[in-house]
DNA sequence: GTAGGGTTAG
Protein backbone atom coordinates (compact mmCIF):
# COMPACT_ATOMS: atom_id res chain seq x y z
CA UNK A 1 0.00 0.00 0.00
CA UNK A 2 2.79 2.44 0.86
CA UNK A 3 4.55 1.72 -2.41
CA UNK A 4 1.34 2.34 -4.25
CA UNK A 5 1.12 5.93 -3.01
CA UNK A 6 3.58 7.81 -5.20
CA UNK A 7 3.42 11.53 -5.73
CA UNK A 8 2.13 11.16 -9.28
CA UNK A 9 -0.86 9.06 -8.32
CA UNK A 10 -4.03 10.90 -7.42
CA UNK A 11 -5.00 10.35 -3.82
CA UNK A 12 -7.84 7.94 -3.09
CA UNK A 13 -11.30 9.43 -2.93
CA UNK A 14 -13.39 9.59 0.23
CA UNK A 15 -14.91 6.14 -0.29
CA UNK A 16 -11.47 4.56 -0.20
CA UNK A 17 -10.74 6.13 3.18
CA UNK A 18 -12.44 3.16 4.81
CA UNK A 19 -9.74 0.88 3.54
CA UNK A 20 -6.96 3.18 4.72
CA UNK A 21 -8.66 3.69 8.05
CA UNK A 22 -9.61 0.09 8.70
CA UNK A 23 -6.69 -1.73 7.18
CA UNK A 24 -3.63 0.41 6.53
CA UNK A 25 -3.48 2.50 9.71
CA UNK A 26 -4.11 -0.39 12.20
CA UNK A 27 -1.51 -2.40 10.33
CA UNK A 28 1.07 0.35 10.66
CA UNK A 29 0.18 1.11 14.27
CA UNK A 30 0.52 -2.51 15.40
CA UNK A 31 3.83 -3.10 13.71
CA UNK A 32 7.31 -2.58 15.11
CA UNK A 33 9.02 0.78 15.70
CA UNK A 34 9.97 1.24 12.07
CA UNK A 35 6.39 1.00 10.93
CA UNK A 36 5.22 3.23 13.73
CA UNK A 37 7.55 5.96 12.42
CA UNK A 38 6.32 5.49 8.92
CA UNK A 39 2.75 5.66 10.20
CA UNK A 40 3.37 9.28 11.30
CA UNK A 41 4.83 10.28 7.95
CA UNK A 42 2.19 8.26 6.10
CA UNK A 43 -0.71 10.12 7.73
CA UNK A 44 1.10 13.47 7.62
CA UNK A 45 1.88 13.27 3.93
CA UNK A 46 -1.57 11.91 3.17
CA UNK A 47 -3.09 15.01 4.79
CA UNK A 48 -0.63 17.31 3.00
CA UNK A 49 -1.57 15.59 -0.26
CA UNK A 50 -5.28 16.12 0.28
CA UNK A 51 -4.74 19.78 1.14
CA UNK A 52 -2.48 20.20 -1.88
CA UNK A 53 -5.24 18.80 -4.07
CA UNK A 54 -7.61 21.40 -2.64
CA UNK A 55 -9.52 18.76 -0.69
CA UNK A 56 -9.25 20.39 2.73
CA UNK A 57 -12.67 19.25 3.82
CA UNK A 58 -11.75 15.63 3.14
CA UNK A 59 -8.55 16.11 5.10
CA UNK A 60 -10.71 17.39 7.95
CA UNK A 61 -13.03 14.37 7.70
CA UNK A 62 -10.10 11.98 7.59
CA UNK A 63 -8.49 13.49 10.67
CA UNK A 64 -11.82 13.36 12.49
CA UNK A 65 -12.25 9.69 11.67
CA UNK A 66 -8.78 8.90 13.00
CA UNK A 67 -9.72 10.55 16.28
CA UNK A 68 -13.28 9.21 16.58
CA UNK A 69 -12.31 5.61 15.85
CA UNK A 70 -9.33 5.97 18.19
CA UNK A 71 -7.12 4.68 15.40
CA UNK A 72 -4.37 7.17 15.87
CA UNK A 73 -3.67 10.15 18.06
CA UNK A 74 -2.80 12.95 15.62
CA UNK A 75 0.28 15.07 16.21
CA UNK A 76 0.25 18.86 16.35
CA UNK A 77 1.79 18.87 12.88
CA UNK A 78 -1.19 16.92 11.53
CA UNK A 79 -3.68 19.20 13.22
CA UNK A 80 -1.84 22.27 11.92
CA UNK A 81 -1.78 20.98 8.36
CA UNK A 82 -5.56 20.72 8.36
CA UNK A 83 -6.23 23.85 10.44
CA UNK A 84 -4.01 25.97 8.17
CA UNK A 85 -5.85 24.68 5.11
CA UNK A 86 -9.26 25.37 6.63
CA UNK A 87 -8.25 28.86 7.80
CA UNK A 88 -6.71 29.81 4.47
CA UNK A 89 -10.07 29.61 2.89
CA UNK A 90 -12.04 32.60 4.25
CA UNK A 91 -15.18 30.55 4.45
CA UNK A 92 -17.31 30.62 7.58
CA UNK A 93 -18.12 26.92 7.79
CA UNK A 94 -14.50 25.93 7.14
CA UNK A 95 -13.42 28.35 9.84
CA UNK A 96 -15.90 26.72 12.23
CA UNK A 97 -14.46 23.31 11.36
CA UNK A 98 -10.98 24.63 12.13
CA UNK A 99 -12.13 25.96 15.49
CA UNK A 100 -13.83 22.68 16.33
CA UNK A 101 -10.69 20.79 15.48
CA UNK A 102 -8.70 23.15 17.69
CA UNK A 103 -11.09 22.76 20.61
CA UNK A 104 -10.89 18.99 20.43
CA UNK A 105 -7.13 18.84 19.95
CA UNK A 106 -5.52 15.97 21.87
CA UNK A 107 -2.02 17.36 21.30
CA UNK A 108 -0.70 20.73 22.42
CA UNK A 109 -1.51 23.62 20.03
CA UNK A 110 1.51 25.75 19.18
CA UNK A 111 2.19 29.20 17.76
CA UNK A 112 1.43 27.99 14.22
CA UNK A 113 -1.99 26.73 15.32
CA UNK A 114 -2.80 30.05 16.97
CA UNK A 115 -1.48 32.20 14.14
CA UNK A 116 -3.53 30.33 11.55
CA UNK A 117 -6.72 30.47 13.60
CA UNK A 118 -6.32 34.12 14.52
CA UNK A 119 -5.54 35.23 10.99
CA UNK A 120 -8.47 33.21 9.65
CA UNK A 121 -10.78 34.81 12.21
CA UNK A 122 -9.49 38.29 11.38
CA UNK A 123 -10.13 37.67 7.69
CA UNK A 124 -13.80 37.01 8.41
CA UNK A 125 -13.80 39.89 10.90
CA UNK A 126 -14.51 37.87 14.01
CA UNK A 127 -12.32 40.12 16.12
CA UNK A 128 -13.66 39.11 19.52
CA UNK A 129 -12.97 35.44 18.94
CA UNK A 130 -9.53 36.29 17.54
CA UNK A 131 -8.73 38.34 20.62
CA UNK A 132 -9.94 35.55 22.88
CA UNK A 133 -7.65 33.07 21.15
CA UNK A 134 -4.66 35.37 21.33
CA UNK A 135 -5.23 35.71 25.03
CA UNK A 136 -5.27 31.92 25.25
CA UNK A 137 -1.91 31.80 23.50
CA UNK A 138 -0.33 34.08 26.10
CA UNK A 139 -2.05 32.27 29.00
CA UNK A 140 -0.66 28.95 27.79
CA UNK A 141 2.83 30.46 27.75
CA UNK A 142 3.29 29.93 24.06
CA UNK A 143 5.65 32.58 22.64
CA UNK A 144 4.12 34.76 19.95
CA UNK A 145 6.34 35.33 16.91
CA UNK A 146 6.59 38.07 14.26
CA UNK A 147 3.64 36.58 12.46
CA UNK A 148 1.45 36.72 15.57
CA UNK A 149 2.28 40.39 15.93
CA UNK A 150 1.78 41.04 12.23
CA UNK A 151 -1.72 39.61 12.34
CA UNK A 152 -2.49 41.72 15.37
CA UNK A 153 -0.95 44.90 13.94
CA UNK A 154 -2.57 44.48 10.57
CA UNK A 155 -5.97 44.01 12.18
CA UNK A 156 -5.53 47.04 14.41
CA UNK A 157 -4.25 49.10 11.47
CA UNK A 158 -7.26 48.13 9.36
CA UNK A 159 -9.42 49.61 12.08
CA UNK A 160 -7.32 52.76 11.92
CA UNK A 161 -6.29 52.56 15.59
CA UNK A 162 -2.71 53.64 15.08
CA UNK A 163 -2.06 54.52 18.72
CA UNK A 164 -2.89 50.96 19.70
CA UNK A 165 -0.69 49.68 16.89
CA UNK A 166 2.22 51.73 18.23
CA UNK A 167 1.71 50.12 21.62
CA UNK A 168 1.77 46.64 20.08
CA UNK A 169 5.02 47.53 18.30
CA UNK A 170 6.41 48.47 21.70
CA UNK A 171 5.32 45.10 23.15
CA UNK A 172 6.97 43.41 20.23
CA UNK A 173 10.18 45.31 20.87
CA UNK A 174 10.07 44.34 24.57
CA UNK A 175 9.96 40.68 23.60
CA UNK A 176 12.97 41.12 21.35
CA UNK A 177 11.02 40.39 18.18
CA UNK A 178 12.05 42.50 15.16
CA UNK A 179 9.41 43.86 12.82
CA UNK A 180 9.64 42.73 9.20
CA UNK A 181 8.49 44.30 5.95
CA UNK A 182 4.91 43.08 6.48
CA UNK A 183 4.79 44.78 9.89
CA UNK A 184 5.97 48.06 8.39
CA UNK A 185 3.69 47.77 5.38
CA UNK A 186 0.63 47.46 7.62
CA UNK A 187 1.61 50.59 9.51
CA UNK A 188 2.63 52.55 6.41
CA UNK A 189 -0.59 51.63 4.67
CA UNK A 190 -2.68 52.70 7.63
CA UNK A 191 -0.99 56.11 7.70
CA UNK A 192 -1.44 56.47 3.94
CA UNK A 193 -5.12 55.65 4.23
CA UNK A 194 -5.43 58.40 6.83
CA UNK A 195 -3.54 60.78 4.57
CA UNK A 196 -0.72 61.10 7.07
CA UNK A 197 1.91 61.02 4.37
CA UNK A 198 4.71 62.56 6.40
CA UNK A 199 4.33 59.86 9.04
CA UNK A 200 4.22 57.19 6.35
CA UNK A 201 7.41 58.56 4.78
CA UNK A 202 9.22 58.70 8.09
CA UNK A 203 8.26 55.07 8.75
CA UNK A 204 9.73 54.11 5.38
CA UNK A 205 12.96 55.90 6.31
CA UNK A 206 12.98 54.25 9.71
CA UNK A 207 12.45 50.83 8.20
CA UNK A 208 15.33 51.34 5.76
CA UNK A 209 17.84 52.79 8.19
CA UNK A 210 17.02 50.85 11.36
CA UNK A 211 16.07 47.46 10.00
CA UNK A 212 17.73 47.43 6.58
CA UNK A 213 14.40 46.57 5.02
CA UNK A 214 13.83 47.78 1.45
CA UNK A 215 10.40 49.02 0.42
CA UNK A 216 8.53 46.57 -1.82
CA UNK A 217 5.56 46.77 -4.18
CA UNK A 218 3.11 46.90 -1.28
CA UNK A 219 5.00 49.78 0.35
CA UNK A 220 5.09 51.79 -2.87
CA UNK A 221 1.47 51.00 -3.63
CA UNK A 222 0.38 52.35 -0.27
CA UNK A 223 2.35 55.54 -0.84
CA UNK A 224 0.96 56.02 -4.34
CA UNK A 225 -2.60 55.51 -3.14
CA UNK A 226 -1.96 57.87 -0.26
CA UNK A 227 -0.75 60.70 -2.46
CA UNK A 228 -3.55 60.21 -4.98
CA UNK A 229 -6.14 60.08 -2.21
CA UNK A 230 -4.68 63.19 -0.72
CA UNK A 231 -4.95 64.92 -4.05
CA UNK A 232 -8.50 63.71 -4.70
CA UNK A 233 -9.62 64.78 -1.24
CA UNK A 234 -8.68 68.36 -2.01
CA UNK A 235 -11.35 68.26 -4.66
CA UNK A 236 -13.96 67.24 -2.12
CA UNK A 237 -12.80 70.03 0.16
CA UNK A 238 -13.56 72.27 -2.82
CA UNK A 239 -10.20 74.00 -2.77
CA UNK A 240 -10.19 76.57 -5.51
CA UNK A 241 -6.60 75.68 -6.23
CA UNK A 242 -5.42 72.10 -5.98
CA UNK A 243 -1.91 71.52 -4.84
CA UNK A 244 -0.16 69.76 -7.70
CA UNK A 245 2.81 68.99 -5.46
CA UNK A 246 0.89 65.98 -4.19
CA UNK A 247 0.96 64.54 -7.66
CA UNK A 248 4.66 65.45 -7.91
CA UNK A 249 5.24 63.24 -4.90
CA UNK A 250 3.20 60.44 -6.45
CA UNK A 251 5.19 60.63 -9.69
CA UNK A 252 8.48 60.61 -7.81
CA UNK A 253 7.42 57.45 -6.02
CA UNK A 254 6.31 55.97 -9.33
CA UNK A 255 9.74 56.61 -10.87
CA UNK A 256 11.55 55.30 -7.83
CA UNK A 257 9.61 52.05 -7.88
CA UNK A 258 10.12 51.67 -11.62
CA UNK A 259 13.85 51.99 -11.14
CA UNK A 260 13.73 49.15 -8.67
CA UNK A 261 11.76 47.00 -11.07
CA UNK A 262 8.36 47.31 -9.35
CA UNK A 263 5.17 48.19 -11.17
CA UNK A 264 1.90 49.42 -9.72
CA UNK A 265 -1.05 47.10 -10.16
CA UNK A 266 -4.07 47.83 -12.31
CA UNK A 267 -6.07 49.50 -9.55
CA UNK A 268 -3.24 51.85 -8.68
CA UNK A 269 -2.53 52.69 -12.31
CA UNK A 270 -6.15 53.62 -12.85
CA UNK A 271 -6.20 55.74 -9.78
CA UNK A 272 -2.98 57.55 -10.72
CA UNK A 273 -4.06 58.18 -14.28
CA UNK A 274 -7.34 59.62 -13.09
CA UNK A 275 -5.56 61.89 -10.62
CA UNK A 276 -3.10 63.04 -13.29
CA UNK A 277 -5.93 63.95 -15.66
CA UNK A 278 -7.70 65.67 -12.84
CA UNK A 279 -4.53 67.64 -12.06
CA UNK A 280 -4.28 68.42 -15.79
CA UNK A 281 -0.89 66.75 -15.87
CA UNK A 282 -1.55 65.32 -19.29
CA UNK A 283 2.02 64.37 -20.06
CA UNK A 284 2.24 62.22 -16.92
CA UNK A 285 -1.23 60.79 -17.52
CA UNK A 286 -0.28 59.67 -21.02
CA UNK A 287 3.03 58.25 -19.87
CA UNK A 288 1.20 56.11 -17.31
CA UNK A 289 -1.47 55.19 -19.79
CA UNK A 290 1.13 54.08 -22.35
CA UNK A 291 2.61 51.90 -19.65
CA UNK A 292 -0.75 50.29 -18.93
CA UNK A 293 -1.49 49.70 -22.61
CA UNK A 294 1.99 48.25 -23.16
CA UNK A 295 1.15 45.69 -20.49
CA UNK A 296 -1.85 44.61 -22.50
CA UNK A 297 -4.18 46.16 -19.96
CA UNK A 298 -6.53 49.09 -20.22
CA UNK A 299 -8.47 51.52 -18.06
CA UNK A 300 -11.45 50.42 -16.02
CA UNK A 301 -14.67 51.55 -17.64
CA UNK A 302 -15.62 53.57 -14.56
CA UNK A 303 -12.26 55.32 -14.44
CA UNK A 304 -12.48 56.15 -18.12
CA UNK A 305 -16.00 57.53 -17.69
CA UNK A 306 -14.89 59.66 -14.76
CA UNK A 307 -11.90 61.02 -16.70
CA UNK A 308 -14.00 61.88 -19.76
CA UNK A 309 -16.68 63.45 -17.61
CA UNK A 310 -14.11 65.52 -15.75
CA UNK A 311 -12.33 66.70 -18.90
CA UNK A 312 -15.51 67.65 -20.72
CA UNK A 313 -16.94 69.37 -17.68
CA UNK A 314 -13.82 71.54 -17.72
CA UNK A 315 -14.40 72.12 -21.44
CA UNK A 316 -11.12 70.35 -22.23
CA UNK A 317 -12.56 68.94 -25.44
CA UNK A 318 -9.26 68.41 -27.26
CA UNK A 319 -7.84 66.37 -24.36
CA UNK A 320 -10.97 64.23 -24.12
CA UNK A 321 -10.96 63.55 -27.85
CA UNK A 322 -7.28 62.73 -28.00
CA UNK A 323 -7.83 60.21 -25.20
CA UNK A 324 -10.77 58.75 -27.11
CA UNK A 325 -8.61 58.47 -30.25
CA UNK A 326 -5.72 56.95 -28.35
CA UNK A 327 -7.91 54.12 -27.09
CA UNK A 328 -9.24 53.53 -30.59
CA UNK A 329 -12.79 53.82 -31.86
CA UNK A 330 -13.21 50.07 -32.09
CA UNK A 331 -11.82 49.35 -28.63
CA UNK A 332 -14.02 47.64 -26.11
CA UNK A 333 -13.92 50.77 -23.95
CA UNK A 334 -15.07 53.11 -26.69
CA UNK A 335 -17.86 50.71 -27.61
CA UNK A 336 -19.17 50.66 -24.08
CA UNK A 337 -22.56 52.35 -23.86
CA UNK A 338 -21.87 53.99 -20.51
CA UNK A 339 -18.69 55.54 -21.98
CA UNK A 340 -20.55 56.75 -25.05
CA UNK A 341 -23.26 58.20 -22.85
CA UNK A 342 -20.70 60.20 -20.87
CA UNK A 343 -19.08 61.32 -24.10
CA UNK A 344 -22.37 62.43 -25.66
CA UNK A 345 -23.42 64.32 -22.51
CA UNK A 346 -20.01 65.98 -22.42
CA UNK A 347 -20.09 66.93 -26.07
CA UNK A 348 -23.44 68.65 -25.58
CA UNK A 349 -22.06 70.39 -22.49
CA UNK A 350 -19.23 71.71 -24.64
CA UNK A 351 -21.74 72.97 -27.17
CA UNK A 352 -20.66 70.38 -29.70
CA UNK A 353 -24.08 69.08 -30.67
CA UNK A 354 -23.05 68.46 -34.28
CA UNK A 355 -20.21 66.35 -33.05
CA UNK A 356 -22.57 64.44 -30.74
CA UNK A 357 -24.96 63.87 -33.62
CA UNK A 358 -22.13 62.58 -35.79
CA UNK A 359 -21.00 60.19 -33.08
CA UNK A 360 -24.55 58.96 -32.54
CA UNK A 361 -25.18 58.43 -36.23
CA UNK A 362 -21.93 56.51 -36.58
CA UNK A 363 -22.97 53.94 -33.98
CA UNK A 364 -24.91 51.61 -36.28
CA UNK A 365 -22.00 51.47 -38.73
CA UNK A 366 -19.91 50.24 -35.82
CA UNK A 367 -22.47 47.55 -35.13
CA UNK A 368 -23.62 49.26 -31.94
CA UNK A 369 -27.24 49.58 -30.95
CA UNK A 370 -28.15 52.69 -28.94
CA UNK A 371 -29.55 52.00 -25.49
CA UNK A 372 -32.34 53.95 -23.78
CA UNK A 373 -29.58 55.81 -21.94
CA UNK A 374 -27.92 56.87 -25.20
CA UNK A 375 -31.24 58.08 -26.59
CA UNK A 376 -32.02 60.00 -23.46
CA UNK A 377 -28.58 61.68 -23.60
CA UNK A 378 -29.34 62.77 -27.15
CA UNK A 379 -32.84 63.95 -26.25
CA UNK A 380 -31.62 65.91 -23.20
CA UNK A 381 -28.77 67.36 -25.22
CA UNK A 382 -31.07 68.57 -27.96
CA UNK A 383 -33.59 69.95 -25.47
CA UNK A 384 -30.92 71.91 -23.64
CA UNK A 385 -29.80 73.43 -26.92
CA UNK A 386 -33.43 74.32 -27.62
CA UNK A 387 -33.47 71.94 -30.61
CA UNK A 388 -36.98 70.68 -29.88
CA UNK A 389 -37.57 69.20 -33.32
CA UNK A 390 -34.41 67.12 -33.08
CA UNK A 391 -35.44 65.97 -29.62
CA UNK A 392 -38.90 64.93 -30.83
CA UNK A 393 -37.43 63.11 -33.82
CA UNK A 394 -35.01 61.27 -31.53
CA UNK A 395 -37.88 60.26 -29.26
CA UNK A 396 -39.79 58.79 -32.20
CA UNK A 397 -36.70 56.96 -33.47
CA UNK A 398 -36.26 55.53 -30.02
CA UNK A 399 -39.74 54.03 -30.08
CA UNK A 400 -39.35 52.77 -33.64
CA UNK A 401 -36.29 50.85 -32.52
CA UNK A 402 -38.24 49.30 -29.67
CA UNK A 403 -36.09 51.11 -27.17
CA UNK A 404 -38.51 51.97 -24.41
CA UNK A 405 -38.06 55.31 -22.65
CA UNK A 406 -37.63 55.17 -18.90
CA UNK A 407 -39.79 56.95 -16.33
CA UNK A 408 -36.96 59.48 -16.01
CA UNK A 409 -37.03 60.26 -19.71
CA UNK A 410 -40.80 60.62 -19.77
CA UNK A 411 -40.85 62.98 -16.80
CA UNK A 412 -38.00 65.00 -18.23
CA UNK A 413 -39.75 65.34 -21.59
CA UNK A 414 -43.08 66.32 -20.04
CA UNK A 415 -41.31 69.17 -18.23
CA UNK A 416 -39.41 70.32 -21.30
CA UNK A 417 -42.50 70.15 -23.51
CA UNK A 418 -44.42 72.19 -20.96
CA UNK A 419 -41.65 74.78 -20.82
CA UNK A 420 -41.63 74.96 -24.61
CA UNK A 421 -45.44 75.14 -24.73
CA UNK A 422 -45.67 71.93 -26.81
CA UNK A 423 -49.02 71.04 -25.19
CA UNK A 424 -50.15 68.55 -27.85
CA UNK A 425 -46.92 66.65 -27.36
CA UNK A 426 -47.49 66.60 -23.60
CA UNK A 427 -50.88 65.02 -24.17
CA UNK A 428 -49.40 62.29 -26.39
CA UNK A 429 -46.68 61.62 -23.81
CA UNK A 430 -49.19 61.23 -20.99
CA UNK A 431 -51.19 58.64 -22.93
CA UNK A 432 -48.02 56.72 -23.72
CA UNK A 433 -47.00 56.85 -20.08
CA UNK A 434 -50.29 55.34 -19.03
CA UNK A 435 -50.06 52.57 -21.61
CA UNK A 436 -46.51 51.69 -20.56
CA UNK A 437 -47.34 51.91 -16.85
CA UNK A 438 -45.03 54.80 -16.05
CA UNK A 439 -45.78 57.38 -13.40
CA UNK A 440 -45.31 61.09 -12.79
CA UNK A 441 -42.79 62.49 -10.34
CA UNK A 442 -44.04 65.00 -7.78
CA UNK A 443 -42.32 67.91 -9.52
CA UNK A 444 -43.73 66.93 -12.93
CA UNK A 445 -47.16 66.54 -11.39
CA UNK A 446 -47.22 70.02 -9.86
CA UNK A 447 -46.09 71.58 -13.14
CA UNK A 448 -48.89 69.75 -14.98
CA UNK A 449 -51.50 70.84 -12.45
CA UNK A 450 -50.31 74.41 -12.71
CA UNK A 451 -50.63 74.23 -16.50
CA UNK A 452 -54.16 72.85 -16.23
CA UNK A 453 -55.07 75.57 -13.74
CA UNK A 454 -53.60 78.21 -16.04
CA UNK A 455 -55.72 76.86 -18.86
CA UNK A 456 -52.81 75.95 -21.10
CA UNK A 457 -53.57 72.26 -20.75
CA UNK A 458 -56.99 70.77 -21.43
CA UNK A 459 -59.02 70.19 -18.22
CA UNK A 460 -60.05 66.79 -19.59
CA UNK A 461 -56.46 65.67 -19.00
CA UNK A 462 -56.99 65.92 -15.22
CA UNK A 463 -58.37 62.39 -14.97
CA UNK A 464 -55.46 60.97 -16.89
CA UNK A 465 -52.99 62.87 -14.73
CA UNK A 466 -54.62 61.47 -11.59
CA UNK A 467 -54.10 57.94 -12.88
CA UNK A 468 -50.40 58.59 -13.39
CA UNK A 469 -49.69 59.40 -9.76
C1' DG B 1 14.19 18.68 8.08
C1' DT B 2 9.08 18.46 8.96
C1' DA B 3 3.81 23.70 8.81
C1' DG B 4 2.24 29.38 7.93
C1' DG B 5 3.73 33.97 6.60
C1' DG B 6 2.31 38.94 1.85
C1' DT B 7 -4.35 41.55 2.74
C1' DT B 8 -6.50 44.73 -0.50
C1' DA B 9 -7.81 49.03 -3.29
C1' DG B 10 -13.19 49.50 -9.06
TrEMBL record:
Keywords: Repeat. This is Tetratricopeptide-like helical domain superfamily protein. The keyword Repeat applies. Belongs to the PPR family. P subfamily. It comes from Tanacetum coccineum. PPR repeats lie at residues 110-144, 145-179, 180-214, 265-299, 336-370, 371-405. It comes from the Eukaryota. PROSITE patterns: PPR. The keyword Repeat applies.
Amino acid sequence: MLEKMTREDPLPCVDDFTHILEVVIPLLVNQNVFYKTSCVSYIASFLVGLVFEDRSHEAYMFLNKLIKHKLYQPTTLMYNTVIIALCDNPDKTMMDDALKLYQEMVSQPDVVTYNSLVSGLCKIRRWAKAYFLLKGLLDKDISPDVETFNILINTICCQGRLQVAAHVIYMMHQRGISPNIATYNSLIDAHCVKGEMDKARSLVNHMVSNHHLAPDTATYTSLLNGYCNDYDKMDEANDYCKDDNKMDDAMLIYHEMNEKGFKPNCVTYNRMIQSCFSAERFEDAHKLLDDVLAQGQTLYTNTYCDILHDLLEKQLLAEALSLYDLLGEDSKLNSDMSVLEVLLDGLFDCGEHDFARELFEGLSARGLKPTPGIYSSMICGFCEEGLMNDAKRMFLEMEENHCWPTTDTYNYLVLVYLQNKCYDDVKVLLYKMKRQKHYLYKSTLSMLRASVAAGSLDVTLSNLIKKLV
